[in-house]
Design goal:
By secondary structure, the protein is α/β, with parallel strands linked by helices. The chain has 34 helices and 34 strands. The chain has an eight-stranded mixed β-sheet. It has a six-stranded mixed barrel with strand order 29-33-30-32-31-34. The chain has a five-stranded parallel β-sheet with strand order 10-9-8-16-17. The protein starts with 16 loop residues before the first helix and ends with a strand. The protein binds iron/sulfur cluster. Iron/sulfur cluster binds next to helix 2. Iron/sulfur cluster is lined by residues 34-35, 39, 42, 44, 77-79, 81-82, 213-214, 813.
Length: 937
């Protein structure tokens, strides 16, 4: 039965304006909340005000303290979208009851069913799949709109049954492969208040005026302090008006721009030599004959293959570069010159420092030459290079969507080279920004621990410490960070994490093998076919530990994502190739998404304010932010934790009824179904009334479990976070990505990552133990990408005149409230393509006219918004729109071929090894080629 609550209080006609206004803001209770539905980095503490049990209004809490004297506090964190969340909560798009399709998939014909019926039927589908194909035939995409309970419930459920979950970062492609190649980790993130310390602030691959509304004030405040703000974008982006420089770079040529500045830094003698010698591989010697690093194994029969050498400028001799520290000791590593070296077989070769190769490479990127490639004039390149070299420089690429370009790795490596030459990371006000979700270790434990209580957590934490200690014993040159990353890689490569890179699923089951082998869509400079790289990677065992050829997929569970909207290739690829293989498709959501519309079952989940949850923990704010349960879930909606629990109960029951209780997974491990619920509920440790999880008790333990790992202060608990809305983290905890931030959290200081490297001289988790710009892997040498360079974006999608760029839509929380009525009213109310007026005029296209956007993959129709902010030859399609907002439900994803760069399958080389969220291929979307035409019929 519908529950008619939660509407805003009505007002009588004729009521005086003043009393209406006062009445509007009356409340009898206020609680802390936030919007934890992957509004990343979000984490805004909110106050939600209730009257008579209904939400009256919401506003920013404004309760965050000053952290560092002289640096503005983070208040008031919030945005219009958050302030309108209750409209989504009560919107017409909300799902209220479990439904099952009765027509063809996608026909829109549904019937309402009970939770019992839904769970029993889904349970049978899952058991059928296990019997037919094994548990690996049950797949889930990670999804980034997941709440705390979505992650916990799905992770426990999948790990108990043995299903496969695809890696989030490849799926959404917020990966920064260039950072990874350089640092051995992609994700350094400073706190947002650290932006204030920058002297030069690049808004580059980012549009904070749209996407970082709660944090944008730090850019303004840094500028007020005297910082120079530089917006680099092909279009005059909405953030450009807040900058001192707008740099109109040609789309996808940012590497040339960065290398032009790097060349100017060298040309003008502005290189920070001490930083370069200590932090990077630029002094390491490379053999002239093989173009490989000179290693000890070249010199001695028992030599170490990963012991690298440099040339000591004081003695003129080669010396081993220490692996345990970045401290150069008594050696003065040379950046120039060459040296003759006698190898173990008596042959003599010459070797020279990487820096020499960099200088040689940059000769092709003088500011004048770079200007010809990127369209930015040489004088501006020089001027900005000087500023970068003389000040603390930070580049903001929120979630760094450079990686969304096919050659984004080259762009990022070029940006980092500029920062390396000028000593611009590992201190306040410097560095790059990516993303991280870690610190809240209790969340991770909540997914993994078998029983409730503190003892198991202490045991798990102790076990982790022992594993890390064992790795360090094997290789005493490793720091805790390096050993933890190594331990995580080992776990990921024997399937222990339950995550798999989606590349293999897409290749084998979703038709992408055809796209990826379409030579004309790839980089024409690559000498071989995609399959040649793919097969070699598999044959050489580079991905041996992760499932490469999953069994035929049979069950698809979408929880926290929207695969048919977000996946590059979208409905076109997945509905055509993957969907026919699936016998049971389940979507859990709080609204009817594009994926829900094509599912067999749709289960309504509780939204924010209807369940407790935590913001995605990150060093951006360094707070564990809490969202309380403000109102009861709408109608029959339930938290994901409860839904997966119901599924466990149904599967156990049906398994017993069907006499199918045990089975083996692909690794040969025996699994059982009859005690699923007991194990899911932590051996009944958090069971409430025998059939549901006590979410408050579990959340309280997650906080207390995080105290054990040292990331939250003593005395933290649910009561405290409920009372104050957030708790500041005090340590990095035990997660590899958190430790990869490589800096201590200080109570009275902004957070700048990588300080352990610059201040304590701890090595980096790379092959050379230094920030590595020279990648002497076979494939990188073959592609001439052993050093950063510029390559034009290939013609993904075909040879068409327009290059599509994108970015987060202004009026959405990612895709979550894209169809929220309030938000739709703030713009044209429907999707639109931004196009330069001259391009439109040449095609006789008028403003708001519906056009066809097309390429080799297909087409979609959309109104055009004419704006001179888009450069000629560029069209901008902001993302997040649902396919059903377009005619025939064909949306922008449907013309994206989802190309991946074959080099990102490389392995067998130092840090080029998979671990969750890190090294793996991810599909490119920026720079897809398309035509735009007038519709004449
Ligand atoms: Fe903050 Fe995100 Fe909520 Fe906006 S939607 S107020 S950015 S948490």
């Amino acid at each position: 039965m519908a529950t008619p609550i939660r509407t805003r209080p009505p007002h009588a006609h004729g009521e005086a304006t003043e009393s209406r206004y006062r009445d509007r803001f009356k409340f009898d209770r206020a609680v802390f909340a936030s919007h934890c539905i992957d509004c990343y980095p979000g984490n805004c503490p909110y106050r939600v005000y209730l009257r008579d049990g209904n939400i009256a209004f919401e506003e920013q809490a404004g309760t965050l303290p000053v952290i560092e004297a002289g640096v503005p506090d983070m208040n008031p964190m919030g945005c219009q979208k958050g302030a309108g969340w209750s409209h989504t909560l009560n919107g017409g798009e909300r799902l209220r009851h479990p439904v099952r399709r009765v027509g063809e998939r996608g026909s829109g014909e549904w019937e309402r069913i009970s939770w019992d019926q839904a769970c029993d039927e889904i349970a049978d589908g899952i058991i059928d799949a296990i019997q037919e194909q094994g548990p690996e035939s049950m797949i889930a995409l990670s999804g980034c709109n997941m709440s705390t309970w979505g992650v916990t419930g799905r992770t426990r459920f999948f790990s108990l049954i043995g299903g496969l979950t695809t890696d989030l970062n490849a799926e959404m492609n917020d990966f920064s492969p260039g950072h990874y190649l350089t640092y051995g980790k992609f994700d350094p993130v400073s706190s947002i208040d650290d932006w204030f310390h920058a002297d030069v602030f690049f808004i580059w691959f980012s549009n904070p005026a749209y996407t970082r509304i709660p944090h944008q004030h730090y850019i303004t405040e840094a500028r007020y302090r005297g910082a120079t703000i530089v917006t680099v974008a092909p279009d005059y982006s909405p953030s450009a008006m807040h900058a001192d420089y707008y740099v109109a770079v040609k789309p996808g040529t940012d590497a040339a721009f960065a290398l032009g500045m790097a060349a100017a830094v060298i040309e003008e003698g502005l290189v920070h030599e001490r930083f370069v010698k200590e932090q990077t591989d630029l002094p390491l010697l490379v053999r002239d004959d093989t173009r490989r690093f000179l290693v000890e194994a070249d010199l001695r029969d028992d030599g170490h293959p990963e012991q690298f050498y440099w040339l000591d400028a004081r003695t003129g001799d080669i010396a081993p570069a220490p692996r345990a520290t970045l401290d150069t000791g008594d050696v003065d590593p040379a950046l120039s010159g060459d040296v003759r070296v006698t190898l173990r077989d008596g042959a003599t070769i010459t070797a020279r420092p990487v820096f020499q190769h960099v200088v040689q490479r940059l000769a092709g990127y003088t500011p004048e030459k770079a200007a010809a490639m990127c369209g930015v004039d040489a004088a501006t390149i020089r001027e900005l290079a000087r500023k970068v070299a003389r000040g603390r420089t930070k580049t903001l690429g929120s979630l760094n969507n450079a990686g969304k370009y096919y050659h984004g790795d080259l762009i990022e490596r070029s940006q980092l080279l500029l920062l390396a030459l000028t000593g611009n990371w590992g201190r306040k006000g410097t560095g790059v920004q990516a993303w991280i979700a870690a610190l809240f270790d209790g969340w991770l434990m909540g997914s993994a621990k078998p029983v409730a209580g503190p003892d198991i957590v202490k045991m798990l934490h102790g076990g982790y410490k022992q594993f890390v200690a064992a790795v360090r014993e094997e290789d005493p040159t490793m720091t805790e960070e390096l050993a933890t990353i190594e331990f995580t890689k080992r776990s990921a490569n024997n399937g222990a994490t339950g995550w798999v890179p989606p590349v293999f699923l897409w290749y084998n089951h979703a038709g992408y093998d055809r796209n990826w082998n379409q030579a004309s869509w790839h980089d024409p400079s690559m000498p071989r076919t995609f399959d040649s790289y793919y097969n070699e990677a598999l044959e050489r065992g580079w991905w041996a530990g992760v499932p490469q050829r999953a069994t035929e997929p049979r069950v698809f569970i979408e929880c926290g994502g929207n695969a048919l909207r977000r996946t590059r290739g979208g409905r076109k690829m997945l509905l055509t190739h993957l969907w026919p293989k699936l016998k049971t498709i389940v979507t859990m959501d709080y609204r009817m998404s594009a994926t829900a519309l094509e599912s067999d079952y749709v289960l309504p989940i509780a939204a924010q304010y209807e369940k407790i949850s935590f913001g995605i923990p990150s060093t951006h704010t360094l707070n564990l932010t809490f969202c309380d349960k403000v109102v009861e879930p709408i109608d029959e909606a339930k938290s994901e934790l409860e839904i997966f629990g119901l599924l466990c109960q149904a599967i156990a029951r049906r398994a017993k009824e069907r006499g199918f209780v045990t089975y083996h997974d692909a690794a040969g491990t025996e699994r059982r179904l009859d005690d699923l619920w007991e194990r899911y509920s932590y051996n009944n440790g958090y069971a409430r009334n025998g059939s549901a999880i006590d979410e408050d008790a579990l959340a309280d333990d997650m906080i207390k479990d995080t105290i054990v790992t040292g990331a939250l202060p003593e005395g933290s608990d649910l009561g405290k976070v409920r009372e104050q809305g957030f708790i500041r983290f005090t340590g990095l905890g035990m997660n590899a990505r958190a430790l990869g931030q490589a800096s201590d959290i200080e109570p009275d200081s902004t957070f700048a990552p990588l300080r352990n490297h610059t201040e304590k001289k701890y090595p980096y988790p790379t092959l050379t133990r230094r920030a590595q710009f020279y990648i002497d892997h076979d494939w990188f040498l073959e592609a001439d990408e052993h050093l950063p360079r510029h390559k034009d974006a290939p013609k993904a999608g075909g040879d068409y005149p327009f290059l599509i760029t994108s970015g987060h839509n202004r009026w959405s929380v990612h895709s979550a409230n894209i169809v929220n009525k309030l938000m739709l009213q703030t713009h044209r109310g429907e999707p639109h393509l931004v196009m330069n007026p001259a391009d439109a005029a040449a095609r006789d296209i008028a403003d708001n006219e519906v056009v066809e956007v097309f390429n080799d993959m297909g087409s979609y129709r959309t109104p055009v918004k004419l704006s001179p902010s888009a450069r000629p030859g560029q069209v901008i399609m902001y993302n997040g729109w649902e396919p059903y907002q377009f005619p025939n439900w064909n949306g922008p994803s449907d013309i994206e071929p989802g190309m991946i760069k074959p080099l990102h399958l490389a392995g067998g080389y130092g840090h080029l090894r998979y671990w969750p969220n890190e090294w793996q291929p991810a599909p490119a979307c920026r720079g897809t080629r398309a035509g735009v035409r007038k519709i004449t019929r």
